[in-house]
Design goal:
The complex is a heterodimer.
Chain A (H helix, E strand, L loop, with lengths): L2 H8 L2 H51 L9 H9 L5 E5 L3 E2 L11 H8 L3 E9 L2 E13 L5 E13 L1 H51 L14 H58 L5 H32 L6 E5 H11 L8 E4 L5 E5 H18 L4 E8 L2 E7 L33 H11 L3 E6 L4 E8 L9
Parallel strand pairs in A: 7-9
Antiparallel strand pairs in A: 1-2, 1-5, 3-4, 4-5, 6-8, 9-10, 10-12, 11-12
Helix pairs in contact in A: 2-5, 5-6, 6-7, 7-10, 8-9, 9-10
Chain B lengths: L1 H12 L10 E5 L2 E2 L7 E8 L2 E8 L6 H9 L4 H5 L15 E3 L6 E3 L9 H18 L9 E5 L2 E6 L5
Parallel strand pairs in B: 6-7
Antiparallel strand pairs in B: 3-4, 5-6, 7-8
The chains are: A alpha+beta, B alpha+beta.
Chain lengths: 478, 162
């Protein structure tokens, strides 16, 4: 895994959840273990300390009435002997019992405080890694005046806490083990929680992706009533609203297109009648008075323009309605293109150069190819400057037809817009002979074949490139 | 969360193992009876299987013989109510005698050894030594007393605390 992928994986929801759970669990288990350990340690130490001191005090209380002050050496020895543990009895810091611990090992501070005190005292010290407990018990006497004062008699004992330390160390080990044991449970719990959160998130992601690809009917099942369920509900509502809005827009657009189709269709019948009339008018124009002849010719040309516009509108309505049909046949391209040019009175010469290698066959709709060629060459002749070059070649599985002129070219910002409906590259020329639908229709025709048309500037003019698959596959038929 | 972290850090800072401490005071120190503050009598009875000293206030200093014969009579009402009892046999008119002219001191007990438990013998030893200490006749508590029963001698015995 590369560092970048590792980082993006680590910033995911699952590792973050797992890490949070683990940290919280370790902290909680650690704190609980530490608290338990601390309390147990205090209990253990207090137990041994209190037991030692209280037992000594009881024994001293029993023995004391038998003693007289100052005690003899034998009395001190007997006193120390009568007490359990490693005990030394001291009188006025000078004499001590012959048994018991070495007095110099007793911390000086403890001895100093015990000698002047009426309270028992203890102290824990570290003797080269071994914890040791020292207790000092002063013995007081009540004077004749009732004032309590030290009697000079002191008892010291020393208890090694080695076994307690071992017990406490074991406690600590168990505390750590318990905390560590909690970790796998925490991770498992976190994974479970992450899965419960991530599954709906993943489903939402998939659904949102489908929605983005246009499947507006995608919906998710709402489970439970948590925040994620609310999110899913919101998503469903959004998708439904989007579907409704898009549906409304689509039906409105369909209505508009149907209206155009209907209008165009309705216009064809009167136009046919008008065309018949203008044909007659054209023939008779020579016999009319000059002013009337001009008017008759104007009406005639505008009627032809209107006829072409209506034809184009009807044609494009078919594309919009998805009713355009391909009539495929085996076509010799050189012949077909030459026929198209000849039919419109364009003969190859100085202004129109053709480069049409013979023997290139392709499966296409001959009528639609004719429309495209006529439109591209017509545009080049009208808007570009001669010479116009028409070049045909085979490129892989495609046939490519290039129509290049030597005019001013197309403005860069218009290159993609020239195929839009009623777009005019030259705004100064508000009225032209075209319907404004020619290039749109040409591209629709190319796309119907599974190909396309691209516009580009060569530097010395504009070039339109028609690219069609040579052998149309049946399954791509709409 | 912050408070919790502080708590955890404090716990960890408390460290592991056994830490040294400064000098820490515990409870009041034991008091040795002072003959100068008044003549008191200490008798040793039994509580929970162990001898316990019981101090009685007397007007005058009592001789060890008198103290031991008071012990023989058993605990008084207030001592009895504290759960204190004696393991000595009932005297039935017999009495204890003490010879404090010898070293160690001899105590003549009018019972056989079979009649006396270890605790009972300790009662006698402790009470005699305490009485001797009060009267300041024998200074050496470490030496103990010799107990002479009807069927033999025992000792010298000190006062045993356990």
């Amino acid at each position: 895994m590369s560092p970048l992928r590792l980082r993006s994986w680590l910033s995911g929801l699952r590792p973050r959840l797992v890490a949070s759970f683990a940290v919280v669990t370790i902290l909680a288990a650690g704190a609980a273990a530490a608290a338990g350990y601390s309390i147990a340690r205090t209990t253990i130490l207090k137990g041994v300390q209190d037991q030692t001191v209280l037992q000594l005090r009881d024994q001293i209380n029993i023995y004391l009435p038998t003693m007289t002050l100052p005690p003899s050496q034998a009395a001190l020895d007997g006193f120390a002997r009568s007490l359990t543990g490693d005990v030394v009895a001291v009188y006025q810091g000078a004499s001590r019992s012959r048994t018991g611990i070495d007095l110099t090992s007793v911390p000086a501070q403890l001895r100093r405080e015990v000698a002047t005190s009426d309270r028992m005292r203890f102290m824990r010290v570290d003797e080269g890694g071994t914890p040791v407990f020292y207790a000092g018990i002063p013995i007081v006497m009540q004077g004749a005046d009732g004032v309590v004062k030290p009697s000079g008699l002191e008892v010291y004992t020393r208890v090694s806490l080695t076994s307690q330390q071992a017990a406490i160390d074991e406690l600590a080990t168990w505390a750590w083990r318990t905390a560590a044991l909690a970790l796998p449970f925490a991770v498992a719990l976190a994974l479970l929680a992450a899965r419960q959160v991530l599954r709906p998130v993943r489903a939402l992601n998939t659904a949102a992706g489908q929605l983005g690809r246009g499947r507006l009917d995608v919906r998710l099942q709402v489970k439970g009533s948590d925040e994620l369920a609310q999110l899913v509900t919101t998503f469903n509502n959004t998708a439904a609203e989007l579907e409704r809005t898009v549906g409304t827009l689509q039906s409105m657009e369909a209505d508009a297109r149907r209206f155009v189709a209907d209008v165009s269709h309705e216009l064809r019948t009167p136009l046919a009648a008008m065309n018949a009339v203008t044909d007659v008018l054209d023939e008779d124009a020579g016999q009319l008075p000059p002013d009337t002849a001009v008017a008759a010719r104007l009406v005639s040309s505008e009627t032809r323009r209107l006829t072409r516009l209506v034809q184009d509108l009807v044609e494009i309505s078919r594309f919009d309605a998805g009713r355009a049909e391909l009539r495929l046949e085996e076509v010799d391209l050189a012949t077909a293109i030459t026929d198209s040019l000849t039919a419109r009175g364009w003969t190859p010469g100085v202004d129109l150069r053709t480069e049409l290698p013979p023997g290139i066959f392709a499966t296409l709709d001959r009528r639609r190819l004719d429309l495209v060629v006529a439109n591209l060459v017509g545009n080049a002749l009208r808007h570009g400057a001669p010479p116009v070059e028409v070049r045909l070649r085979v490129e892989g599985g495609d046939i490519v037809l290039e129509v290049t002129d030597h005019g001013p070219g197309i403005r860069e910002d218009m290159l993609t817009q020239v195929f839009d409906r009623f777009t005019k590259a030259d705004t100064a020329r508000a009225r032209s002979e075209g319907s404004g639908l020619g290039l749109s229709l040409a591209r629709e025709n190319a796309r119907l074949h599974g190909g396309d048309i691209l516009a580009a500037n060569t530097g010395s003019g504009a070039r339109f490139t028609l690219r069609l698959p040579r052998y149309h596959r049946i399954k791509e038929l709409r | 969360m912050k408070r919790f972290l502080v708590f955890a850090v404090l716990l960890l800072a408390g460290g592991c193992g056994i830490q040294p401490t400064p000098v820490i005071p515990l409870g009041p120190a034991p008091t040795i009876p002072n003959p100068a503050s008044g003549p008191n009598l200490t008798l040793y009875f039994v509580s929970q299987g162990r001898v316990v000293p019981s101090t009685r206030v007397t007007g005058t200093a009592l001789k060890p013989t008198d103290a031991l014969n008071l012990l023989l009579k058993g605990p008084n009402q207030s001592e009895f109510s504290q759960g204190i009892y004696t393991e000595l046999p009932t005297p039935n008119g017999k009495s204890i005698d003490v010879d404090d002219r010898t070293v160690p001191v001899q105590v003549f007990v009018p019972f056989s050894q079979k009649e006396l438990t270890d605790v009972a013998i300790n009662q006698l030893a402790c009470t005699s030594i305490a009485a001797l200490a009060t009267s300041s006749r024998v200074p050496d508590s470490g030496l103990g007393v010799v107990l002479t029963m009807t069927d033999g001698k025992l000792g010298p015995r000190p006062c045993q605390t356990f």
